[in-house]
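Hello,

Our lab assistant flagged a job as stuck in the queue for most of the afternoon. It eventually completed. Since we weren't sure the result was trustworthy after the delay, we are filing this so someone can double-check. Below is the sequence as submitted and the structure that was eventually returned. Let us know if re-running is recommended.
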Amino acid sequence: MSVFLNADNITFSYVNEMEEPPIKTTVFKDLSLQVEKGEFVAILGHNGSGKSTLAKCFNAINIPEKGDVFVNGMSIKDESKILDIRQSVGMVFQNPDNQIVATIVEEDVAFAPENMGVPSEEIRRRVDDSLKTVGMYEYREHAPHRLSGGQKQRVAIAGILAMQPDCILLDEPTAMLDPRGRKEVMNTIKMLNRERGVTIVLITHYMDEAAQADRVVVMDNGKIVMDDKPKKVFSRVDEIKSLGLDVPQVTELVYRLNECGYELDSEITTEDECVEALYKLLSSD
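-- returned structure --
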């Protein structure tokens, strides 16, 4: 695979102009991260760790003061490439209501391609394909405000898909959803990655969601402190907890059992793995 997103020694700060003199807060300094094309990366970190700021750099919403960010080889500092970058990297935010702009589902999904100047016939095809992809085609003539939270978020994802991006950044897309809605959205994300080859960067507070990624990046105070496969990251339970984060529930269970003297694989992250390990443990007694 080739590198698709490349943050190269970037430094980013916010300036509070309301204060006198203005107060400058550095979010991260000399930070580097690469995401390969087709990869599914989850980014974790407590509030204020810099993860959302970094995601916005990948979409050219934030421009670093030092260093550079490249999207498929295009610099976000090259103003002539901004439109290409934002068509290549779509972003889904926490609250779907903030992204839905029309009163009919299919009109909302058509909004971005219409503004991109896509021909009408092609827009129709993209809208239908995108809604079918996220399982919302039968709701195409519904009013968005009558949909559930999970359905709204899938419509928001369809709106991004209609732009035909190579990558989707999702900033806590399931934070406002119930368990069913979270499952719907996660199934859609995994399908887009596995079947469509869409590069996914998922920011989440849910460890069970992060465990489904190819790779987990953990940020703390503007620095990347862990970057590995989910099983490797979550096996470091004490370190994860020291950062104010959690581990998947099954990993926590295994950790507690091992503290009690049992010998289970510390890299267990799924329910099926946990069931199998417990079955072997109980069968051996």
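-- support follow-up --
The delay was a queue issue, not a problem with the job. The result is valid. The two ends are 46 Å apart (CA to CA). The mean pLDDT is 92.
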